Protein backbone atom coordinates (compact mmCIF):
# COMPACT_ATOMS: atom_id res chain seq x y z
CA UNK A 1 0.00 0.00 0.00
CA UNK A 2 1.32 3.44 -0.92
CA UNK A 3 2.13 5.97 1.76
CA UNK A 4 0.02 9.09 1.33
CA UNK A 5 0.93 12.60 2.48
CA UNK A 6 -1.72 12.16 5.19
CA UNK A 7 0.13 9.07 6.51
CA UNK A 8 3.39 11.02 6.57
CA UNK A 9 1.78 13.87 8.53
CA UNK A 10 0.32 11.44 11.06
CA UNK A 11 3.70 9.80 11.53
CA UNK A 12 5.39 13.17 12.07
CA UNK A 13 2.69 14.27 14.52
CA UNK A 14 3.03 11.02 16.46
CA UNK A 15 6.79 11.60 16.76
CA UNK A 16 6.27 15.15 18.04
CA UNK A 17 3.68 14.04 20.58
CA UNK A 18 5.96 11.27 21.87
CA UNK A 19 8.74 13.84 22.44
CA UNK A 20 6.38 16.14 24.35
CA UNK A 21 5.07 13.24 26.44
CA UNK A 22 8.63 12.23 27.30
CA UNK A 23 9.46 15.77 28.45
CA UNK A 24 6.29 16.07 30.54
CA UNK A 25 6.87 12.63 32.08
CA UNK A 26 10.43 13.54 33.07
CA UNK A 27 9.20 16.82 34.60
CA UNK A 28 6.53 15.03 36.69
CA UNK A 29 9.06 12.46 37.87
CA UNK A 30 11.53 15.19 38.86
CA UNK A 31 8.98 17.42 40.60
CA UNK A 32 6.99 14.86 42.51
CA UNK A 33 9.22 11.80 42.68
CA UNK A 34 6.58 9.74 40.89
CA UNK A 35 8.16 7.02 38.79
CA UNK A 36 6.01 6.62 35.68
CA UNK A 37 5.87 3.74 33.23
CA UNK A 38 6.58 4.11 29.52
CA UNK A 39 2.87 4.72 28.90
CA UNK A 40 2.82 7.68 31.26
CA UNK A 41 0.66 5.90 33.84
CA UNK A 42 1.73 5.78 37.47
CA UNK A 43 3.80 2.70 38.18
CA UNK A 44 2.05 0.04 40.22
CA UNK A 45 3.85 -1.45 43.22
CA UNK A 46 4.82 -5.10 42.92
CA UNK A 47 2.34 -7.45 44.60
Automatic annotation (TrEMBL):
It comes from the Bacteria. This is Uncharacterized protein. It comes from Nonomuraea muscovyensis.
Amino acid sequence: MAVTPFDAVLRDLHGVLRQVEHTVQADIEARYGLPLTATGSPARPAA
